[in-house]
Amino acid sequence: MTREEILLQKKATALNAIRKLYHPLTKHGYTYYEGEGSRMEQISFDVERIIKQLEKELLEVARKSGVRICGPNCLGLINAFESVYATFSQYADGDTHSGPVGFVSHSGAFGTAIAALARRREIGLGYFVNTGNEIDLGFSEIMQEILLDPRIKVVAGYLEGIKDGFALKKLAKSAIEHNKPLVLTKVGRLGAGALAAASHTGSLAVEDGLFDAVARQYGIIRARNEEQMLDILEVMLYTSPPAGNRLGIITQSGGAAVMMADRAEELGLVMPRLTPESE
């Protein structure tokens, strides 16, 4: 089946109506489904078992019918290249001109905010995908498909945790092979944040030092927050990735140069001394 032949269905539904929804979908041969399951995994602990059972049933039906699921507990996706707006995100209410950045987010609301900031900076998002609870399609699997699109130059993502470390490493290797920078903002770095991430999308906390080590080993560019992510994206869109770790600084301020030199050394960058002639 080609990409053009894929049928798509999006629904926002109350929790107790999910069973009535997904069986008719499979009868009509839908091959993709996204769900926003009335704050799935975000309501009280007393119904957590029921939610998990509903997700299990939904996935079983999908598996038998060849349906792939993005979500539940998500805002869906935008493919700006083909003008596909399968989303509930407010980002779609404004201009969503296509561009060379593919963006995938665990969080819907925060992902929408990042997309809106990107628009303000005139950074075009070719793809915007919110993955939610990921009972079927995961962050890395979706990002991998986006990365393979020749119209995409840079891929970026917002993570609340890691559900499949092997898939993330495979994605990072693929990004290097295709010479496309992979920029990630991972939150839940400390105890309170990790607990908040688990209650939001069910993401599993990963010790932050471990994630940093993996990012360095596999060439993942880690952004500490959304503003730094967008700064990095702007750089990557207009320049080629650096060939090495040597750095030169040109500035009007000596104080700023000292601050930047300190930070560069912290990051393992080398600032060669000027020759006597240049000095």
Structure description:
By secondary structure, the chain is of the alpha/beta class. The chain has nine helices and ten strands. It has helices at 18-27, 48-65, 108-120, 139-147, 165-177, 191-201, 208-217, 226-238, 254-266; strands at 9-12, 32-36, 68-70, 76-79, 84-87, 101-105, 125-130, 154-159, 182-186, 221-222. A seven-stranded mixed β-sheet has the order 5-4-7-6-8-9-10, sandwiched between helices. A three-stranded parallel β-sheet has the order 1-2-3, with helices on one face. α1 packs parallel to α2 and α4 (139-147) packs parallel to α5.
As residue ranges, the low-confidence spans are: 37-45
Mean pLDDT: 81
Major beta sheet, strand line-up: 5-4-7-6-8-9-10
Q: Mind summarizing the main beta sheet?
A: 7 strands, mixed
Structural class based on helices, strands and sheet pairing: alpha/beta
Q: What integer value in Å does the Rg equal?
A: 21 Å
Q: Please give the count of helices.
A: 9
β-strand number: 10
Assess the beta-strand content as a share of residues: 15-25%
Distance between the termini: 64 Å
Q: What is the N-to-C succession of helices and strands?
A: EHEHEEEEHEHEHEHHEHH
Any descriptors?
279 residues; alpha/beta; 9 helices; 16% strand
Short description:
Helices cover 39% and strands 16% of the residues. The chain has 279 residues and is an alpha/beta fold.
Tell me the layout of helices and strands.
Blueprint: E1 9-12, H1 18-27, E2 32-36, H2 48-65, E3 68-70, E4 76-79, E5 84-87, E6 101-105, H3 108-120, E7 125-130, H4 139-147, E8 154-159, H5 165-177, E9 182-186, H6 191-201, H7 208-217, E10 221-222, H8 226-238, H9 254-266
Parallel strand pairs: 1-2, 2-3, 6-7, 6-8, 8-9, 9-10
Antiparallel strand pairs: 4-5, 4-7
Helix pairs in contact: 1-2, 4-5
